[in-house]
UniProtKB/TrEMBL annotation:
Protein known as: Indolepyruvate oxidoreductase subunit beta
Keyword Oxidoreductase attributed: yes
The organism of origin for this protein: Megasphaera cerevisiae DSM 20462
Record Pfam families: POR
EC number(s) per entry: 1.2.7.8
GO molecular function: indolepyruvate ferredoxin oxidoreductase activity
Length: 191
C-alpha cells in the first residue's frame, strides 16, 4: 500500500457515478487503505457532466486528481471519456461504457454526436470498452450499469481481496442487492 492510486469516475447526471465511487471508497476503507474522495455534480440534475475522484494508498493527502495523474478513468459515457482523457497518466487506462447520451446541443440539432470516439481514444491510450448498459439491461435493469463498470474497474485494478459483495449489500437498497451483485460479477467477467 505504498503507491497512491488515482481513479476518476465521469458520467452524466443520473448514471450512478457517485454511487459507484462510494462503493469503491467503502471497500477500500474497509480493506485498510487511506482514501480521499471528492465529487463534482455540476449540472448533473440537468443531464450535465458529473465527476468523482477517488485516491487511495497507504497515505493520501488530497482528494484532487490533477491533469495527467489518473491511473484509471472510468467513463459511463463515450464523450465523457474524451472530455476527461487529459487527466490520465501516459500509461493510464480508460474503462468506458460503450454508450452514448446525447447532450442538449445534440438533442436540439445544433451539433452532431461525434463518431469514432472510442477508436480515437484507443490510438492514444489503453481503452477497455464494454457495453455496460446492455449487460445491465440483460440482467433486468439498465440502471445497474454503474455497478457493471465498478466490477470492471475492480478487475482492472486487481482488487480481488476485498469483500465487494458485503460492501455492495450494505450500500444499495435491499430490493436491489441481488441485481447489483449480478451486475458486479458481470462487469468483472466482461474484463
Amino acid at each position: 500500500m505504498t503507491d497512491v492510486k488515482n481513479v476518476l469516475f465521469v458520467g452524466v447526471g443520473g448514471q450512478g457515478t457517485i454511487l459507484a465511487s462510494k462503493i469503491l471508497t467503502m471497500g477500500l476503507i474497509a480493506h485498510g487503505y487511506d482514501v480521499k474522495m471528492s465529487e463534482v455534480h455540476g449540472m448533473s440534475q440537468r443531464g450535465g457532466s458529473v465527476s468523482t475522484q477517488v485516491r487511495f494508498g497507504a497515505k493520501v493527502y488530497s482528494p484532487i486528481i490533477g491533469e495527467g495523474t489518473a491511473d484509471i478513468l472510468v467513463s459511463f459515457e463515450e464523450m465523457e471519456a474524451a472530455r476527461y482523457a487529459k487527466f490520465l497518466k501516459k500509461d493510464g487506462k480508460i474503462v468506458v461504457n460503450a454508450c452514448r447520451i446525447p447532450s442538449m446541443p445534440v438533442l436540439s440539432g445544433t451539433c452532431q454526436y461525434p463518431e469514432g470516439v472510442i477508436a480515437a481514444l484507443q490510438e492514444c491510450v489503453s481503452v477497455l470498452a464494454i457495453d455496460a448498459t446492455q449487460i445491465a439491461s440483460d440482467l433486468g435493469n439498465p440502471k445497474s450499469a454503474n455497478v457493471v463498470l465498478l466490477g470492471a474497474l475492480v478487475e482492472a485494478l486487481g482488487l480481488h481481496d476485498i469483500d465487494w459483495k458485503g460492501i455492495i449489500s450494505q450500500t444499495v437498497k435491499k430490493n436491489f442487492v441481488d441485481m447489483n451483485l449480478q451486475a458486479f460479477e458481470a462487469g468483472m467477467a466482461a474484463m
